[in-house]
Amino acid sequence: DQQVKQNSPSLSVQEGRISILNCDYTNSMFDYFLWYKKYPAEGPTFLISISSIKDKNEDGRFTVFLNKSAKHLSLHIVPSQPGDSAVYFCAAITGGGADGLTFGKGTHLIIQP
Amino acid sequence: DAGVIQSPRHEVTEMGQEVTLRCKPISGHNSLFWYRQTMMRGLELLIYFNNNVPIDDSGMPEDRFSAKMPNASFSTLKIQPSEPRDSAVYFCASSFSSGQETQYFGPGTRLLVL
Fold first, then answer.
1. What mean pLDDT do residues B22-27 have?
2. How far apart, in Å, are the Cα atoms of B60 and each of A26, B33, B98?
3. Which has the minimum average pLDDT: A32-36, B85-89, B98-102?
4. Residue in A with minimal Cα distance to B9
């Protein structure tokens, strides 16, 4: 049973517009959430994170929103740029440190010129 | 820093052979993680170490899989004997686990078992 779900395998957005990637989770013990970005033939790279005590975290063009009651988080990218084309993984973790991440299956974001 | 280093980057082997994947974590990190990525299951945690000690190996699929961390700068993931269904990309990640959850991933080893 998948504890972290990304229901959109792919998303196509026009350059300059907003990209919204969604993620749902089922385990209420998760207390920290992360987004990773992955290019082909490379490892995932950390993008942005949010603690369960917050509902929003912003870093430049990237904003993550957390709705704990709905067990839902989203990543907003605005404006979208061609270099944002990649696979985005939502991940969650329990505990305070050295635990493994539980990943969603990823959403392939394609930014069209 | 060079980041997490994995070797080899690509491995092609025949069913029944032993495969050893290697990882050098970022210097100063004290947690190390092995993940596997497949089309069917996505990215899944296999095992993780904290201060060189295996903490959770519940993700290791079978006894054919084993992992060691003899010191803070080196870890291996071994598959013996290998099977075609082990074909996947294997990632190593490390973190400094003093409350910081960000894990840094290596480039991965793409394994193909024929």
1. 96
2. 23, 12, 25
3. B98-102
4. A41
Whether cis (ω within 30° of 0) applies to the bond prior to B8 is yes
Q: Write out residues 23-42 of A within 8 Å (CB-CB) of B.
A: 32, 34, 36, 41-42
Helix, strand or coil for residue A56? Answer: strand
Partners of A111 in the beta sheet? A13
* CB proximity A102 to B under 8 Å: yes
How is residue B30 written in tokens? Answer: 């004290």
Please check the confidence at residue B13 and state whether its pLDDT lies above 80.
yes
Measured distance CA(A90)–CA(B98) in Å, rounded = 22
Inform me whether the pLDDT recorded for B89 exceeds 90: yes
What is residue B27's three-state secondary structure? coil
